[in-house]
């Protein structure tokens, strides 16, 4: 490369100018970090901690009240768990003679978490999610905690004096 061309190239190339160069570099870094932080905040704001509504699963189960498994229901208030029905099982609660409530045990907060399952409190006054700690009344309503939506409630009808039908 000739002396003239090299000199022309050097005069066209920007030269760092002390403190101005440092300020410009700092501003660029600040803008990049700020942009990344904004993207993270926007992404987390769009991601809800509350899951979408629970999926529908067909429920059509008969409970025979004269069986050993259903015996607790004869002395209300009491409950039984029905496994392998609903999304995470069903709790069938009796609060008075011939008054029954069937609730899905799937907690409505972060419902896809494997631990999102409610259980009856020993007092039999409410249900608690072992995952998020939310508390629900015996009819499924949210009492406190992070859950917003009530538990899914199923229809309970008495087919005859000894048989209940739980359905949706």
Number of domains: 2
Which of globular, elongated, flat, extended, rod-shaped describes the shape? elongated
Overall pLDDT level? 82
List the secondary-structure elements in sequence, H or E. Answer: HHEEEEEEEEEE
Main sheet makeup? 6 strands, antiparallel
Instruction: Flag low-confidence runs.
Output: 39-48
Percent helix among the residues? 10-25%
Query: Briefly, what CATH class of the largest domain?
Result: Mainly Beta
Strand order of the largest sheet: 1-10-9-4-3-2
Structural class: alpha+beta
CATH superfamily membership of the largest domain: Rieske [2Fe-2S] iron-sulphur domain
Radius of gyration: 31 Å
How far from one another are the termini?
85 Å
The fold-level CATH name of the largest domain is Rieske Iron-sulfur Protein
- The total count of strands amounts to 10
Strand proportion: 25-35%
What is the CATH architecture term of the largest domain?
A: 3-layer Sandwich
Quaternary state of the chains: single chain
Please, how many helices?
2
Please give a structural write-up.
The chain has 168 residues and is α+β, with helices and mostly antiparallel strands. It contains two helices and ten strands, in the order ααββββββββββ. The chain has a six-stranded antiparallel sheet, with no helix packed on it. Strands 5-6-7-8 form a four-stranded antiparallel sheet, with no helix packed on it. The longest helix has 29 residues, at 18-46. 20% of the residues are buried. The model is unreliable at 39-48 (pLDDT under 50).
């Amino acid at each position: 490369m000739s002396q003239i061309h090299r000199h022309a190239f050097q005069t066209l190339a920007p030269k760092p100018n002390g403190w101005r160069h440092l300020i410009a570099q700092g501003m660029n870094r600040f803008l990049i970090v700020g942009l990344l932080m904004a993207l993270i905040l926007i992404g987390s704001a769009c991601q809800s901690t509350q899951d979408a509504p629970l999926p529908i699963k067909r429920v059509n189960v008969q409970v025979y009240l004269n069986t050993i498994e259903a015996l607790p229901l004869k002395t209300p208030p009491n409950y039984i768990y029905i496994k392998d029905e609903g999304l995470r099982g069903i709790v069938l609660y009796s609060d008075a003679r011939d008054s029954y409530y069937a609730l899905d045990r799937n907690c409505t907060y972060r419902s896809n978490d494997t631990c999102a399952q409610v259980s009856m409190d020993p007092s039999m006054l409410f249900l608690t999610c072992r995952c998020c700690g939310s508390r629900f009344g015996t009819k499924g309503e949210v009492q406190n905690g992070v859950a917003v939506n009530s538990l899914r409630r199923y229809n309970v009808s008495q087919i005859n004096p000894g048989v209940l039908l739980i359905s949706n």
